[in-house]
């Protein structure tokens, strides 16, 4: 069974991941409303990815013999001043999640919970990719602030975040058997 401090931090992280998912849904809806379908699709996919991260953590707790209560979350930001602001928020969120994941791994190490520390390694690697992708996206939307269709063209051409499924990813609760 994971160390109690790890279970507590992981439960908090589940809330952070669900909150990130909700925030990405709000961003996707904003772009959908602005008739920017590729930006919307990018953030709908990000929302699903964050949801799955939460459910990976739930599955880990269940597999490790711990309870996995689903925490509540605050409402996401739904209003944005322009097409750049949502991506600025997303990059800040990814940087914050990176700090949270690193702290969680550090807690596992401090507690001598090597199974949980090993579990967190995949998320550490994932966060490097997430921050890099969102940093690139911010550069693109900033350059195309006056003509967001340029960002749409970039997404059509480059398809960031559309990589194949990672076979080393932890299983998702409720996923295929």
Please characterize this protein's 3D structure:
The model has no long low-confidence stretch (mean pLDDT 94). This protein has one domain: Up-down Bundle (Ferritin), CATH 1.20.1260.10. With 177 residues, it is mainly alpha-helical. Helix 1 runs antiparallel to helix 3. It is elongated, with a radius of gyration of 17 Å.
Tell me the overall shape: elongated
- Class in CATH? Mainly Alpha
Radius of gyration: 17 Å
Largest sheet: none
- State the separation between the terminal residues, measured CA to CA: 23 Å
Name the CATH architecture: Up-down Bundle
Provide a count of the helices: 5
Strand pairing plus helix content: what structural class? Answer: mainly alpha
Low-confidence stretches: none
Total number of strands:
0
Helix content: 55-70%
Beta-strand share of residues: under 5%
Q: Kindly report the name of the CATH homologous superfamily.
A: Ferritin, core subunit, four-helix bundle
CATH topology: the name is Ferritin
Q: Would you tell me the overall average pLDDT? A: 94
Structure described in brief:
It is built from 5 helices and no strands. By secondary structure, it is mainly alpha-helical.
Blueprint of the fold:
Blueprint: H1 4-33, H2 37-63, H3 85-110, H4 114-143, H5 149-158
